[in-house]
Amino acid sequence: MLAVLARWLLGTVLVTWRYLWETTPLHRGCDTPGDDSDRPPPLPLAAIDDRVQRAEDGWGALCHRLFRVRIAAADLDAGRLIEGVCRDFKSFVPSEVVDIHTGELRDHGLDVADELVVEMPGPWNGPVRVVRRDADRLHLVTLRGHMEAGQVQFRAREDDELLVFEIELWARSASRLVHMLYAHLRLAKEIQLNMWVRFCLSAVAASGGRLVDGVHIRTRWLDPPGAAPARAMPGAAATLLASRGLTARHLAGAVRAAGMRRDRWRRNSG
Questions:
Q1: CA atoms within 13 A on the CB side of 36
Q2: Is the CB of residue 128 less than 8 Å from the CB of residue 143?
Q3: Whole-model pTM?
Q4: Which of 122, 99, 242, 98 is nearest to 173 (CA)?
Q5: At what angle do helices 235-243 and 248-269 cross, to 10 degrees?
Q6: Backbone φ/ψ region at 258: left (φ over 0), alpha (ψ -120 to 50), beta
Q7: Residues whose CB falls within 8 Å of the CB of residue 239, separated by 6 or more in sequence, listed in order
């Protein structure tokens, strides 16, 4: 337990430091309202049981996020890159704070019905299950005990002479408690964003090619029916902000604006 806590504390510091000094251009659009096209794809009926944690089982707004990198002069095609992800998923995540545990896998790596646990900072690990594996994609769904409820896809395709790698996520907080703890903590969201950026950059490295035009990130939000546009921050944090005339929206907006200013500075200085 102490070893896990020490790794989490040290790893979080390292990931945050690397994120603040990351020189890769990050092209982040402003968070925008979503529509029905942002809902997750239907899951195969055979993959659904009482352990599956679908987006509709979660709490709060649905986040639909897409990460994309374009790769020039890659040594691998789309199929071989996805095969590499399936064979050695662990090597694509930032090992400072994330560890991957799987059962015994077949020679070709992750396949339908296989499960893995993503050990992450905080009190929740991330159990997921493979619901689809094709030549060009790996599709996972969250299981009970994950801090989020939803799906994630890893895809690769050829586009003219470039190789395109994408991570697409559809997720809500798994419970009201998770929503209260994480929805208003922008730093936690930024660290999570950095992890997926690192995954994309690992895909570039694994391909043997060269990153073209940085990492592109698109985020859209879909509020649940009847939801208020913003929720109050609970507890002492709300009291502290209120004493300064601030709200959770102000805090999240300030951190988001700082991140966008940093990204603009990187692009202009590059």
A1: 0
A2: yes
A3: 0.77
A4: 122
A5: 80
A6: alpha
A7: none
Long-range Cβ contacts of 151-158 (<8 Å, 24+ apart): 151/40, 151/41, 151/43, 151/54, 151/55, 152/128, 154/82, 154/85, 155/82, 156/78, 156/79, 156/81, 156/82, 156/203, 157/78, 158/77, 158/78
Could you tell me the two tokens for 65?
Answer: 């996020």
Helices 186-207 and 248-269 pack at an angle, to 10 degrees, of 30
Rg of the chain (C-alpha set): 19
Partner residues linked to 106 by β-bridges: 109
Q: Tens of pLDDT along 132-177?
A: 999 999 999 999 999 899 999 999 999 999 999 999 999 999 988 8
Can you tell me which residue has the tokens 């985020």? 219
Q: Tokens at residue 168, please?
A: 């697409």
Q: Where are the alpha helices (DSSP H) in the chain?
A: 2-20, 78-87, 176-182, 186-207, 235-243, 248-269
